[in-house]
Amino acid sequence: MKRPISILVAAFALFAAFLALEVSTDSIGMRSAVAGLFVPQDTLKGPKIEFNEEVHNFGKIEQNTSPTTTFMIKSVGTDTLEIVSANPSCGCTAVLLDPAKKRLAPGQSVELKVTFDAHNKAPGNMTKVITVSSNAVNGAQRQLRITGDIFKSTVAHAGSAMSIQGVFEGSCASCHVEKGKGELGAKLYEADCAVCHGDAKEHKPGADIASDAMMNYEPSEWKKIIADGVPNSNMPAFHTKHKGPLNDEEIASLVDYMSAFKKNLMRERQMKSLNGGGASTGTSNTHK
Questions:
Q1: Residues 245, 182: Cα–Cα separation, whole Å
Q2: What are 168-174's contacts with CB under 8 Å, separation 24+?
Q3: Which of 138, 79, 135 is nearest to 108 (CA)?
């Protein structure tokens, strides 16, 4: 009786070992198959782009200065890298790329010089983006960033008050004047006002349009603030009588747009209140 039991036990053990081997083999095969789905970046064929750094921190930046840095762009693929463009996010940032060196054979490099104009810029953290477009298989559009902390310059101030009207002159005019020419209402706000007014997370120095800091004003107050500015603040005087870029009609169109925006915002908040939801007060940025 003992012998048949021993044979049965041995057979069961052999069968269990066979199953374990099958599972192990299947697991290895599955792992191999899954691994085959992921192709490492360094095995991609074609033109590829590489930078010496993607974020450059200038550290402390004094107003009225123009710090410069150089990004190195290198072709590290198997085919010729063609750089289509390098575009900054703001007119206060200038880029210089040799047009004769936009086609790079594998192993070749080119310099991308980036200059930030800190003239009449408000103190605080600054981040600007440069988008590099190319035919690279490892990223046709790559973003480079420059950052820094702007601090007050004794040259940029008269006493303790900043000459903020300078934003309508020089390179600053490309953002604060040129974009808004010929526009009215919402389009004018987007061109001239949204450059500074918006989300604090985007390093905008002015209050967001939907915030209480903006919406608590009346139309007559908006008109005066836009036309005459706010003394000792980052809000310049936009009226032509102060050498700003806007006339009476353009300022009136901004006030009309903001009034309509406020009316819609109040309606939305009332609806949320009726539905049991809270009202949003936007960002806490103010003109300081």
A1: 11
A2: 168/236, 168/243, 168/244, 168/245, 170/117, 170/119, 171/91, 171/92, 171/94, 171/117, 171/119, 172/91, 172/92, 172/117, 172/119, 172/120, 173/91, 174/91
A3: 79
The residue among 81, 229, 203, 219 whose CA lies nearest residue 146 is 203
Neighbours of 101 (CB within 10 A): 13
Q: Which residues contact 6 (CB under 8 A, 6 or more apart)?
A: none
Q: What is the pLDDT of residues 208-256, one digit of tens each?
A: 888 888 888 999 999 999 999 888 777 888 998 988 889 999 999 999 9
Report whether 136 contacts 91 (CB < 8 A).
Answer: no
Q: How far apart are CA 165 and CA 161, in angstroms?
A: 11
Rounded to an integer, what distance in angstroms lies between the CA atom of residue 248 and that of residue 107?
58
Dihedral angle, C-alpha 12, 18, 24, 29, nearest 10 °: -150
Distance CA 134, CA 75 (A): 11
* Residue 196 structure tokens: 């500074």
For 65-76, the pLDDT digits (tens) are: 889 999 999 999
Rounded CA-CA distance 261/259 in Å is 5
Q: Encoding tokens for residue 287?
A: 């003109």
What span, in angstroms and rounded, lies between the C-alpha atoms of 251 and 130? 32
Amino acid of residue 233:
S
What span, in angstroms and rounded, lies between the C-alpha atoms of 231 and 162? 9
Q: DSSP readout, 209-278?
A: TTSHHHHTS-HHHHHHHHHH--TTSS----BGGGT-SB-HHHHHHHHHHHHHHHHHHHHHHHHHHHTTPP
